User: Fold these one by one.
Assistant:
Number 1:
Amino acid sequence: MSDRSIVREPHEVLVAGRRARVGGTVRIVGAGLLGSSIGHALRKNGVDVALTDTSPAQLRLAVDYGAGRPAAEDDAPAIVVVCTPPDVVADAVAAELTRFPEAVVTDVASVKLEPLRELRDRGLNLANYIGSHPMAGRERGGAISARADIFTGRPWVICRDGETPAAALALIEDLALDLGAVPIEMTPEEHDRSVALVSHVPQVVASLLAARFADAPELSLSLAGQGVRDTTRIAASAPELWVQILAANAAPVVEQLDALAADLGAVADALRSPDAPGARRRTADAIRQGNIGVERLPGKHGQRRTFENFVVMVDDAAGQLGRLFGDLGELSVNVEDFRLEHSPGAQLGLAEVSVDPATLQSAVDGLTARGWRIASTSD
Amino acid sequence: MSDRSIVREPHEVLVAGRRARVGGTVRIVGAGLLGSSIGHALRKNGVDVALTDTSPAQLRLAVDYGAGRPAAEDDAPAIVVVCTPPDVVADAVAAELTRFPEAVVTDVASVKLEPLRELRDRGLNLANYIGSHPMAGRERGGAISARADIFTGRPWVICRDGETPAAALALIEDLALDLGAVPIEMTPEEHDRSVALVSHVPQVVASLLAARFADAPELSLSLAGQGVRDTTRIAASAPELWVQILAANAAPVVEQLDALAADLGAVADALRSPDAPGARRRTADAIRQGNIGVERLPGKHGQRRTFENFVVMVDDAAGQLGRLFGDLGELSVNVEDFRLEHSPGAQLGLAEVSVDPATLQSAVDGLTARGWRIASTSD
């Protein structure tokens, strides 16, 4: 690998010098996007990966792409990772616990309580079951889209309660760390409430907001700016997948949707009666609480460092953005963040570049000297 | 200007060869961000700009920065642009119409009906008043942040109804075009409903969604990904400004908030009773309508071109992003769009680069040869 290789191997990312710990055979049930990606990542660490899938074609693809070998009758896996569609997770976990009583079985479903309840209802011994949720950020694509790196730096939730055996927990933590993920332990209840808060309810909200554009006049939509495009970006998600997720996590989602609907109603009431005592203050408080909340979201490095921005105007004609990148590179501008905003109806892009405040002026001066038009700088 | 200057002069952006038409004196009332920016842009076109402001300090700053000259007693402006805070717009417009009966008076307030109603209530002749709303995207900063280019490529709404005199309308259209903006004509009612739809209601929604993070456990927030960060980005907006805007546009905002709250309730009900007939379909329809709506939002160039993406992994250690930019520039990769996503808790950034499908492979090959790790490509 050339010395320009920037990103370390997955298992080195988080803990310098840490060596992969998971060994022996890992059996993966379901060779789609997540299962195949786990296979790829484990194989890079020299682990023996045994794949199985109800679709012979999917299995063949996954094996051909190098995610692992077909599972064999005499396999004795230490870990089983169930990566089936959500509606059959409980069945698959139950089958694997029964078939491999020595193995620790985990899964990757995006809700944790429902599969756990189903398993408890069957009266199984669940000492060897630990629910996982790797939040890899991509849910579609199948074996062809699988990559070893999709877990790197991502949260990997491991569900435990007061009775989870320590050895089994350690094994799944090692799995997550070996894949370059960030293990985060919580109870299944905490997990489901958390994903409702930061993923499921935002999805519903973005979708319903965007749904109002479906029949809106084109003239109205022509006034849309980057703000609403960002707010509704995730409304492009797949309906079938989300119906399953929302149904499986209904309780916390419903609770939070009810609360949000009430908040919307409170703001509407305050605006309906602007002269009522406290009406203006209620609206201001809503915005203010939003300021606080958005500040609490983890950003870069999980820290909140202060950057300064400047905005460069980029003619979207071919090559201009590349030229900007070239100049930023040549000027050695330490770009901390970069956001590109397009202007509907014109060839103009606005590139918001975030840098260390101490370097703002030299970056702006350097780009200006090269002919770039700076639209604005933060104060 | 060096030949690296990429962006054409404002008045050339949209109509090649079009020469600026507004001449004579333009009087600007209120020399804050918008007023000063209009001044700067007009001065680049050689227009005589006369500034006034209730704050002598703001006026002095604006004049010093080159936005125009102080207004004089014997000025005879053809156009007056009122750029005061929203609560005094009607007063200012009334005063200017009275003082300069030959001039066309426009304003830049972000809601159009309320000032118009106040003016009608005073029984004035409004033949020379045309409401404007330049959607410049930045609302804070004062004269120091003013730039000539902030209107380039942006929508500039011009309010007209069946009785608007054609000559006055043409003058304000010329003003918008001279500033490089995209004039969009609609009635004040259409305007207020439109900005409620694409700006005001999304603001309330993003703020209320983010408000739920204000008291949430940090562990829950640690699961947040780029999706919810984008959805709540605009929740960082200023409360005081938004209380004014929402109060001034209360009617359409309330109507749309009520409808949205009802939609949230309908999804919550469907999830509460998942076995009720049509419940699953109702949830799927909500997501599907969101797909349709978000597709209708204008994007780059107002067209929907098909790009392919690939994702490059960037170690956030200093300089890596700049190196990526440098390599993209050196490889002459025609970058159509660029989005940077950070991984909370780790030093990893994921840069999603959009290119013409025909160039995807060579871009990926070129970067890989330079040691970059490609996390994924779109299918």
Number 2:
Amino acid sequence: MAGSGFGTIFRINTWGESHGKGIGVVIDGCPAGIPLSEEDIQSWLDRRRPGQNRYTTARAESDAVEILSGTFEGRTTGTPISLLVRNQDQRSRDYGNIAELYRPGHADYTFDRKYGFRDYRGGGRSSGRETIGRVAAGAVAGRLLAELGVSVRAYVSAIGPVSIDRAKMDFDFIEQSPVRMPDPAASAAAESYLSECMRELDSSGGVIECIASGVPAGLGEPVFEKLDANLAKALMSIGAVKAVEIGDGTAVSRSKGSENNDCCAVGENGVPYKASNHSGGILGGISDGSPILLRVSFKPTPSIAQPQQMLDRSGNCREAVIHGRHDPVIVPRAVVVVEAMTALTLADHLLLAAASRIDFLKKIYSSH
Amino acid sequence: MAGSGFGTIFRINTWGESHGKGIGVVIDGCPAGIPLSEEDIQSWLDRRRPGQNRYTTARAESDAVEILSGTFEGRTTGTPISLLVRNQDQRSRDYGNIAELYRPGHADYTFDRKYGFRDYRGGGRSSGRETIGRVAAGAVAGRLLAELGVSVRAYVSAIGPVSIDRAKMDFDFIEQSPVRMPDPAASAAAESYLSECMRELDSSGGVIECIASGVPAGLGEPVFEKLDANLAKALMSIGAVKAVEIGDGTAVSRSKGSENNDCCAVGENGVPYKASNHSGGILGGISDGSPILLRVSFKPTPSIAQPQQMLDRSGNCREAVIHGRHDPVIVPRAVVVVEAMTALTLADHLLLAAASRIDFLKKIYSSH
Amino acid sequence: MAGSGFGTIFRINTWGESHGKGIGVVIDGCPAGIPLSEEDIQSWLDRRRPGQNRYTTARAESDAVEILSGTFEGRTTGTPISLLVRNQDQRSRDYGNIAELYRPGHADYTFDRKYGFRDYRGGGRSSGRETIGRVAAGAVAGRLLAELGVSVRAYVSAIGPVSIDRAKMDFDFIEQSPVRMPDPAASAAAESYLSECMRELDSSGGVIECIASGVPAGLGEPVFEKLDANLAKALMSIGAVKAVEIGDGTAVSRSKGSENNDCCAVGENGVPYKASNHSGGILGGISDGSPILLRVSFKPTPSIAQPQQMLDRSGNCREAVIHGRHDPVIVPRAVVVVEAMTALTLADHLLLAAASRIDFLKKIYSSH
Amino acid sequence: MAGSGFGTIFRINTWGESHGKGIGVVIDGCPAGIPLSEEDIQSWLDRRRPGQNRYTTARAESDAVEILSGTFEGRTTGTPISLLVRNQDQRSRDYGNIAELYRPGHADYTFDRKYGFRDYRGGGRSSGRETIGRVAAGAVAGRLLAELGVSVRAYVSAIGPVSIDRAKMDFDFIEQSPVRMPDPAASAAAESYLSECMRELDSSGGVIECIASGVPAGLGEPVFEKLDANLAKALMSIGAVKAVEIGDGTAVSRSKGSENNDCCAVGENGVPYKASNHSGGILGGISDGSPILLRVSFKPTPSIAQPQQMLDRSGNCREAVIHGRHDPVIVPRAVVVVEAMTALTLADHLLLAAASRIDFLKKIYSSH
């Protein structure tokens, strides 16, 4: 089944494995007339590529993107946009001893059960490099959002037991932090924790939060194509994600109605405003015009150099060690992936909601 | 946009509002040959209808389902199955004073922004009765799962601050508990808590867990149509849901790789088994053959009789009270809804995975 | 596989068999704010029901439609619209002798091969009554089209060897003609031909043409979701259709470029106009603003009372006679079905095209 | 709207313009385990590329295809297959004088109305080179069909007034004929006719027929996703197509039931067989196991060097001449495109039908 497509009207199709010739994406349904250049996309890709700091693996890739179709004189044409990033560093030898093993926490076993063979080449379609297609497409969605005043920003809010202090958040610090936390103190504490993990040949999980601003009210198509339902699917589809929360998330279960309801209040100028945002900007599956708040929990990178009991292809359970390049943490590199999936979902819903009301359609067709 | 459809091959389309003539669903793509009767569906619906205990509203509905098409001599024909439940008790007068108000925590405001009008009749498509279509369809999916040895069971694991004791879980107690908790002590404590909420004219949130057993390995279509991504969308689409977790869920962020990886161990009989299930039965978005573990967090019912500040249609923020029938908690009635959405997702993926490998197709077409 | 759904944004799902409890459709994605009543739909249904003249079977059905959801105070709400028509006259006894036979030209054999059983009850989902759902939905699409100035009209252009004279077409005559031809002389000749067929216990094929007017330029989504490609699918899906043509249709194969190209000419007022319409209003799969011209060829009704060699369930080929109610021709009743499928396709594309250009989206969201 | 995707489970997404960097396709949902090499695909592409004979334009392209992902050790992996063909010869100067003109019969005007700009570079996405993606994907579908014993063959049955003699068809002659007709006499006559057209600076239309053999009974998903409906959409989506016919096609309208019904007869060996195939292998939208017969009518190539009245961007109608490379006929090069679209549709339906019956699913999951 065609599982590598995402979206309804603004639809992307990704392809490519970490050890194939390249990775790419085709974006279909992007409206015509949006300014788009390779630089717009490269800036997003640069925030995911390896080798940025000592906590990410030193694979030497420039990940330069090439636009093969879909633009003319610097603007989108409305035809499919094909983006390609060539693979360069594919050190096969790093993975030699795992050809016969199913690594714990990886998709080796499940892919074999599904497709009937074991592609041992470094994770194939389930590796982190698969996210290149998502991020490149997310950049294009980001340009569409920008045209309509919508923006998306994500950051790491926790690594292991270390959390940011919400009273001291500084968004300008995100790109300076090696772990992309908007809090210098927490960033330093997280770095210490990660150094400890690396010494122990272990890895850590983490949490990424994402805020979407400027989202018009009315996006989302009940009852199944709700905005939050689609965001949940988009974010859960990112590798290593095990939980998706909207607004207060899991905390709502311990809350009372009098605490959780977002009521209004009147400002000094007499204008009413939304006094809280426990709902995270979405009610009944539809955006209400306030910021959308998302939280995504990532498990620790499964590749650790400690000895582990693992299943082999003959069905035996034995101890082995996974050699190769191991990140102790995923989340700093996944921040741009979370932004991309959020941008892609919002782009699609901006286009879908255009057909909700007959007065919208009359507005378009009267002057056409 | 057509937002009331769910699924790809096994696809359902729900319709109906709480104050219209009825509620229903059309199930398209159910394979032929599955035994199906009204009783099969009624047993699921009975577990959601109101009036079961003092914690659910006393709306007098029998919610009898009628199969209008799609079966012949007691088995599915492969043609669309149309199910209908007529609305009987629609006390419009209960909602009179809210016609001009946007109730906090409800979708009143967002529906108005999206569609351009205010349907004040008790929540319309965003009310709890909308779940009738989901549950009826879930019962049909459940019959398909049964044919292939798959089962789904959900229960309430927490209400407010009261959680079950996992060491003392008794699944046989679920239907005896007025709050559907599989732990008599926790059930009693939760009832006390809810009585307190009712005295305060308030409501409580809760958590539902769901276990799917007998799921074959290999379900899920990477990278976007992963099984966990689709389960997240299905569950997040249920009204009042604010978080979806798989396996250890949010706890994975505080975990280390050495703790989180599910490794193998060898049993007394020398047969290897999966020694833990932190992943919740899904790796790389594909089922691995072990039980699938899901957790869904529900916010408190927004309708409470306490005075609240709310926006009215003229744009003013003023205090008002919502009269009418108010459940202090949603989760006991939502248990069967969680089972339904899980069953629907698994049914679709069982059908989708049939096309993954050329040897499967040869098996079908060689003898056809 | 869910095969009873049609459309992307404006999506319908039909259900029901000729010998089940009823027939219906759920329309999902219809924009809010469109006036809609049962009368709007009944007028379309009345043009298909049996018993209108001596050339259609005398099944006694009133086919009264009921709107079960999706409207409020006379306008669409944007939520799913469920329509139901109860079956009344189901004379099972008419079909008794065919339970063991596969009638030639019918779907009996193919349905059995596909689903594994023989539903002998008068054609089931492949009978003419299945079109009730299409036509009811087409009426709703027609109201949407009306809001945007688009209209659709079809008529019978040929029955057997009898064709209309295009120089003498009178659209006002269509509903007066028992065979829905816009030409009194041809209508009379066709009636004679049909009487002859009935005497011979035989049936006739025919052709329906359809003109869509007021269609804005720009509808259609290349390269696969072209407007003509979707119209072809919509029309070919009608039972008994064996050919779909756009504009000059099959005649283009014998034409030269100098003859077939639609060039411009200048009118007396100096305004250029399209001098011909060989293309039928669509170029490159996109509407050009001129009338869309469609032609649909129907095979003769397969049920004839003449003895025929037919296969039985044991695999033998033997002579038998099909008793029951036999129309000598389908096309007069299929005219409204062709209009319905055309309207449904255009409605969907009007909504899809709204997302083609960033300036359309800015127009919607700037004032929202 | 994403219009460049085709298929449900076996889904392709094409991209690229004639004057961009390249043309390609991503195939998603191809089952794992099918042998696939660049040679398999190149053989299909070679049958469409220009420069094969004097009736096709002399654009110098090798159209070498590159498989960028989706295979491992010579077999499909079940992950997306990305195919790329680089553009080489793009003589922009050939199209210089048309930047301000809307060429008659081309999509220039309609694309401008839809997307808001005029991409004059030789037809862009509506040019013949767009078919490269379709044909490459069709080759992959062809390999899947081969694994299940299904084959597809097309040929030119008419060019202008010249038709083949069905009593003398020789399929082995197809690739020897410069116009791909399976009849040497008709082929020679057609060549004369085309030489005459070229002298007149004109072009000709034609007809392509396609036969699919070995198709199992039971493919097609009523009532809207019927096999013939999807074939009609697939074929009508090919540029320049104006009619699609199944079996006897338009001739059925002049036929009687006693003539058109396909009845059985008993062979010498006592085994019943289908005595005719007026239905073209499809009844009730489902394949019946006999050969599927399709017929596709193509209009003449619109680009002719004769002077024509055409609209310019300022809205004036004036005479102009289109310089550049003009094929006098499309159909010889479109034969492989028709095969490709037919193969793609059948591949998708083979996968869809796998989920029709519960016994099929039990067969797959019992041994998994």
